[in-house]
Amino acid sequence: MPLRLPNINGFAASELRGMRVFGGLLDAEAQERVVADLRDVTAAAPLFSPVTPSGKAMSVRMTSAGRFGWVSDSRGYRYSETHPDGVAWPAIPQSVRNIWDAVSGTAREPECCLINFYGPEAKMGMHQDRDETDFTQPVVSVSLGDDALFRVGNRTRGGKTESIWLRSGDVVVMGGEARLLFHGVDRIAEGTSTLLKSAGRINLTLRVVS
Ligand SMILES: O=C(O)CCC(=O)C(=O)O
Ligand SMILES: [Fe+2]
């Protein structure tokens, strides 16, 4: 996929190793709309604490919206059409789909909106997003709530990395050459945002799965 640098509503993307970073793409009202819509999602598909295949509890809590949700347990990491409780995932809210439409640069629709909730102590180790079928399709990440120190590495594990703080309303497109870069979250800066009722951060990742 060619690397496009769109200018959306006056927002020029900055770049981090080919990831496009739209700083402050969502204004306060847009952020509040998304958070309100996410409350409906988590009411139908509650946040759960995933366990890695090796049996370690992840520090983030998660749930999903869309046809597929991402799950992890002793059987491995995978996409599933049902929540661990057995229910279908709720639809991806329109407020979230609008973000995808603005920045993804693809005609495909997102099939999964993974919702990660980071408490003040949560982090996410360096990983690639590679449970999807088509790596020409981007992953779009939306940050809400407290700031997060986001680290980007290389296409193989290890090597030099670069970090940026992601703030509430920032949107990152991991596409093209940057689609398979290792990335993770080292820490959350507690109390840097008042968007959420409690301290912490929500990150959404929108994905084409099939
Ligand atoms: O929280 C973030 O900014 C990144 C989340 C992520 O990499 C993932 O869910 O795969
Ligand atoms: Fe990821």
TrEMBL record:
Keywords of this entry: Dioxygenase, Iron, Metal-binding, Oxidoreductase
MF (Gene Ontology): dioxygenase activity
Fe2OG dioxygenase domain residues: 109-210
InterPro entries (UniProt xref): Alkb, AlkB-like, AlkB-like_sf, Oxoglu/Fe-dep_dioxygenase_dom
PROSITE patterns: FE2OG_OXY (PS51471)
Pfam families: 2OG-FeII_Oxy_2 (PF13532)
SUPFAM superfamilies with a match to the protein in the record: Clavaminate synthase-like (SSF51197)
Cofactor: Fe(2+)
Name recorded for this polypeptide: Alpha-ketoglutarate-dependent dioxygenase AlkB
